[in-house]
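Let's practice the habit of predicting before peeking. Look at the sequence and jot down your guess about where helices and strands might fall. Then scroll down.
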Amino acid sequence: MMRARRWSACAALTWGIALGGRTAAAEEAGPLRVAILPGAASDSVPPAIEASLRESVREGLRAGGAGLIESASTGGLLDDCGELQCLAALRERIGVAYVVRSSFAAIDRDYALHLDLIDTRDGAAVASFDDRCSLCGLAEMRARTEAGAEGLLAPLRVDAPAPSILAVATTPAGAEVTIDGEVIGAAPFERVMTPGRHRLEIRHPGHVGAVQEVSVVDGVRTELRVELTPTPTPKVCRLPGVLALAGGVPLVAGGIGLLAIDGRPRPLGCDPTASACAEFETTWSGAAALVGGAVLTTLGAVALHRLRKSRTGRARR
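Done guessing? Here is the structure:
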């Protein structure tokens, strides 16, 4: 039953919002300066309970972010202040943007709570709170009053705009990213950006660099994923190295053979009656074949080694 009464009380809660162009004060630097009008004492609510409820109004306004201006610091301006001229004086002399008028009444066994948030520029109520609490204890009445006072400031709150974020990811990861000529760092990363078009340059060793233009929308998270292409490498043919080895090895073998037979008698064309047979003279030809073969073999081996090393490096990348 108590829950039903609470729901009915919440249903009776109304917000009278007549803001028009009155939210400019919420955009000023610092907390919103609010003062509480003393108000006339209620004939139906015990003074102790009324004082406790007025304190709940203060607590609610503080919880809503208001900078409360106490009556003692107004030089008596808050006393019996209800006219537009008085409100203007509060605004000009002390910087009070809004005042709160509160009233409490006991009707049978119910309590009626009413709060108005009044703009000191024109005396208009920009927000109101009404609640009727049936068979409530003091703690519940205070809780409702505090919540209502805090809610008075809700129409004046201006939420901070969401940032514009650019999220960049690359394949492979770790690519260096430059935005509008400024080196940002290695991807992936997220960065708050100004709305509009931006030019991105992406580089990674062993890959072709990429240039992208992206539009960043105000208050929106924009994602950009860039896949880089590996740098093409020219095909290295094995044929020169193989041919060099194929020509160099036989030459080395031939040079060794020619040097081996140098100075030996020729087996053919030797006159048996002669005192001596002709001899092979292959020193220079053998040396030339040996040197030439060694050069070709070395060149072929180096070429094949470099080819293998370059292929291994590409495979690792």
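How did you do? The CA atoms of residues 198 and 214 lie 5 Å apart.
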